[in-house]
Amino acid sequence: MTALAPNPAEEDLATFLPADASPSARLFFDQFRKAGLPNRRVESWHYSDLRARLRAVPPLARAPDEAARAVARQKLAAGAFLRVVTVDGFYAPELSDDFSAVAGVEIIRAGEADFAGETADALLDLNAALARGGFVLDIAAGARVETVIEIVALAGAETDRSRFGRNLIRLGAGAHAKIVETRDEGFAGFGDSALFIALGEDAQLDYACRCRETASVEVQSLNVTLAARANLRSVALLAQTPFLRRQYFVSLAGEGAELQLAGAAILGRTDHADVTLAVRHDAPACTSRETFKYVLGDHANGVFQGKIVVPPHAQKTDGKMMCRGLLLSDEAALSAKPELEIFADDVACGHGAAVTKLDAQQLFYLETRGVPHIEAEKILIDAFAADVFEMLDSEALRDVLRADLSELLGEEKPA
Amino acid sequence: MAAVQQTVDTVKTLDVDAYKYGFTTEIESDKAPKGLNEDTVRFISARKREPDWLTQWRLDAYRRWETMAEPRWARVDYPKINYQDLYYYSAPKGTAGPKTLAEVDPELLRTYEKLGIPLSEQEILAGVQERRVAVDAVFDSVSVVTTFKEELGKAGVIFCPISEAVRAYPELVRKYLGSVVPVTDNYFATLNSAVFSDGSFVYIPPGVRCPMELSTYFRINEQNTGQFERTLIIADAGSYVSYLEGCTAPKRDENQLHAAVVELIALEDAEIKYSTVQNWYPGDSEGRGGIYNFVTKRGDCRGARSKISWTQVETGSAITWKYPSCILRGDHSRGEFYSIAISNGHQQVDSGTKMLHLGKNTSSRIISKGISAGQSQNTYRGQVFAHRKAQNARNFTNCDSLLIGDQCGAHTVPYIEAKNSTAQFEHEATTSKISDDQLFYCMQRGLEAEEATALIVNGFVRDVLQQLPMEFAVEAQKLIAISLEGSVG
Amino acid sequence: MLEIENLHVRVAGKKILDGLNLTVEDGQVAAIMGPNGSGKSTLSYVVAGRADYEVEQGSIKLDGADILEMSPAERAARGLFLVFQYPLEIPGVATMTFLKAALNAQRKARGEAELPTLEFMKQVRAAAAKLNISQDMLKRPVNVGFSGGEKKRMEVLQMALLEPRFAILDEMDSGLDIDALKTCAEGVNALRGEGRSLLVITHYQRLLNFIPPDVVHVMSRGKIVRSGGPDLALALEATGYADYTEGAAA
């Protein structure tokens, strides 16, 4: 095998590491340098050749100044929820709502020590090395937060920047919360963000993520840990993603933890969206359900890689994964790789994948009832995708996603 | 029904270390010097009295191979193979050319008798043996005998060792050899292209339905000897052939290398059914010895409406690395893959298939049943691909794994790639164990734990067993029970 | 025929049977009635030999022999048969294959010759006809895709074929409509007689209208709390189990 030609982007990234970087930041950066930008020969990045895609990186985003805050303020129209705002990956308390009246919620600026040490991926290493100024959102043990918390991630005045957000959502034992994350990177720059979610015993979190107008090249890593009997329901809606890799590293670390992970990608143009899951059942008797749906029009390219790992001691594991694709154009493509890696015998695991087109009979049926063809398509696509929202407990979160979806389908039919 | 009882009986009567084909044959052999270089390649080519083009073809492959690296993506783990410490050619003395049965060394005949392979046409015709199957028997690097050649010849069917075909039908061999698995395909296929020894050649003329099952029986005997067979089957327009392949090897403490290439070509409206019962020596209970089985098998549905069906029962080998595939090139062509892969002891299996949909209205079906026991690792790896122009490609995949005991692993790695809006792919996979409730139910009806397990496992693999020719299915069922022996606590 | 003495059983640490005594005479049809959670199904599983049941004390004897150390298959060969409340599905194994494997395993364990295939087929067909079981059902995999009624009829067919000495019917009426219940009960009644005892476990008296018992035992909190004639079942139907559950708590 011949050695890879050097990639100028890697050299650019090296200049981002500040002179006063901490030893651990240096360690993470060295790990990244050693691995380099992942390419198609790296099995888990086979369908998203980041090395080929990212030939140069824009300048590093600085902590937001007044100009950046002004741009962000404009984008922050009145919202229904209490908001935590980041600009270019930096927590912006002056743009965020006041949480002092909400019992059990605390938001502080994050430090290096807030995040779990080891990583499993080069881009997560890079993020660990370069990210500064994120937040920790703490929900106290036993707190039942009824109000929906919205995390808003915005780009600043200069959109063509490299951003490294790194935030943590932490729920104490028995805490309940509902969080929606709204991301808008303005179609430019390079993003390598990380969100850590740690649920204590018996904690419950409803989490929805709306990703639109992601950066030109964007990698989002989610690092999720569930303690015993904790329950996470997570749904992501992905659209307008020039090149997005969204990767989940989940550990069901405590006995009886439950995970429901879902997503819908509505892609057109030359959008590329890659969802990669590594769900580890690290404790016995955990349950996980993963359901991802792709609607692919135009030249869009959808990728789903899901892996359920069950180590020897994780008996009584119940894991089921499903990926469904709807191809609306002959130029669109879907690659799915749902994997099972099982070392325990008393398990019930399964996965499924299906690629289909719109059902002609259903379309015809709707048309005979007077619905125009285009409308009928939209109705069927909407039904296909919106199905994954149902796993959320919170009606408010489901409504947000439903509204987004109909807006997406109304504005521009993906085909 | 009777088969189940037989399975159960077999389980009872056999020892724990049950590989029953582990004997060696004492016979003098003619070997190439140890190691691999251009001289080895020339030696093999000369021994087989090959034409110059083939010698050059081999040498090109060898030079290419030298620049390649051994693939490491499969989920198998084994010490580095020293390719210079192997023999690449070994032939029992006195088998320089193909022979009639009467001329074959009686020691060899006894070997095949012990293996239960019918070589005597007279006996078969006289009804002593009930099945009528033409056999090509390959012993280490050479074919020792091929039966029923004359009768097949009347139908126009060519069935002979590939070394003979090179001389007798050069135009056919030259046209098709390497046309499905190119010389440069992968590390092991390229190695095979350089040093391939023997294997079968089959040609079915247009419109002919081959009058009997064809079968090749592979036997590795010699120590430190790799087996590199090469099989080429061409089904001309509108023809049909069913081909069976069986393999065994003696018990030896060191690992033996087997790197085969099988190429199938189905022209318009032709159908090839290829069945394998792979029972190479799997190594002992400590994981010592056993065959490293690195095999490239690929079928090309070259003509419209052609069909290729792979059925495999994999119980042997220490390492299995094998993905019988179909290139669905012709419009309306169809590919099928039915597999039972059983691993026990320290065996490692990484096997599956590729279905490459290129033509219009092509369809494929994959049924895979993996059973892991002992401390083995069993991986299904399969790719389903629809090209942009493959209008209306259809695939259905069902892939189930069963775990017996808590020391083993079962893994499923499918790659599903659709580049066409009219493609319809469906994939489903499950992993489970035999439920305690099922076992208890069977035991309440009077079956002991091991019998109950064998019964449930036979049910689990039934969809695939049904694809095998009758006699093979019975044999396979027995083999499954034997392979799982000692796995029930 | 069956003697259970002072049986104490735990399941996952929890005491389920608490000093149960029960004797079923040769040829007798005994009913056990009791509220949910009284330990009825546990009793049937323990007698049949299911793993994961911790027998702390006591003995179970079938025809005088202690069966507690025997495997389920050995017990079956001695003539013990359990009609499962929820019969298991075994995908891929044809019902005929299963029946033959079971019958011959039992015959072999008893030192009897295997039944010739023709004779076996004849017996299955005859029994199947009585129970309204089609040839098609016999070809299908064991219990796979069967309705609740079909599964129960298949249980009775197995019972007819295996000719047990002692059969336990665990909530045979659950999931059955009245017609299916009649068919199954007729099948069972045809097997009543000398040399064969039945233990009918049920929550409702209804089943006993179709399979009239010789004696009725009431079970509560892991033991038999009352025994009597068939009229005891009718009395229970009128008053419910409240007396027993409360009485036991007192």
UniProtKB/TrEMBL annotation, chain A:
Domain of life, per UniProt, equals Bacteria
Which InterPro entries does the record cross-reference, listed alphabetically? Answer: Fe-S_cluster_assembly_SufBD, SUF_FeS_clus_asmbl_SufBD_core, SUF_FeS_clus_asmbl_SufBD_sf
**Where does the SUF system FeS cluster assembly SufBD core domain lie?**
159-384
**What are its GO biological-process terms?**
iron-sulfur cluster assembly
**Record-given protein name:** Iron-regulated ABC transporter permease protein SufD
Organism annotation: Rhodoblastus acidophilus (Rhodopseudomonas acidophila)
- Upper taxonomic lineage: Bacteria, Pseudomonadati, Pseudomonadota, Alphaproteobacteria, Hyphomicrobiales
From TrEMBL, chain B:
- Tell me, what's a Pfam family for it? SufBD_N
Record domain SUF system FeS cluster assembly SufBD N-terminal: where:
154-209
Q: Which residues form the SUF system FeS cluster assembly SufBD core domain?
A: 218-460
Q: Which domain of life is it from?
A: Bacteria
Under SUPFAM superfamilies, the record lists: Stabilizer of iron transporter SufD (SSF101960)
According to its UniProt entry, one GO biological process term is: iron-sulfur cluster assembly
Report the NCBIfam families cross-referenced here. Answer: PRK11814.1, sufB
Record's family? Belongs to the iron-sulfur cluster assembly SufBD family.
Output the PANTHER family linked to this UniProt entry: FES CLUSTER ASSEMBLY PROTEIN SUF (PTHR30508), UPF0051 PROTEIN ABCI8, CHLOROPLASTIC-RELATED (PTHR30508:SF1)
Q: What is this protein called?
A: Iron-regulated ABC transporter membrane component SufB
Organism listed in the record: Rhodoblastus acidophilus (Rhodopseudomonas acidophila)
UniProtKB/TrEMBL annotation, chain C:
A Pfam match is ABC_tran
Q: Where is the ABC transporter domain?
A: 2-246
What are the recorded GO MF terms, alphabetically?
ATP binding; ATP hydrolysis activity
Which SMART domains does the UniProt record give?
A: AAA
Q: Which PROSITE patterns match?
A: ABC_TRANSPORTER_1 (PS00211), ABC_TRANSPORTER_2 (PS50893)
- The answer to keyword Secreted applying to this record is no
Keywords from UniProt, A to Z, are: ATP-binding, Nucleotide-binding
InterPro entries noted in UniProt: AAA+_ATPase, ABC_transporter-like_ATP-bd, ABC_transporter-like_CS, FeS-cluster_ATPase_SufC, P-loop_NTPase
| Protein family | Belongs to the ABC transporter superfamily. Ycf16 family.
Q: Which PANTHER family match?
A: ABC TRANSPORTER I FAMILY MEMBER 6, CHLOROPLASTIC
Identification of the protein by name: Fe-S cluster assembly ATP-binding protein
The source organism is: Rhodoblastus acidophilus (Rhodopseudomonas acidophila)
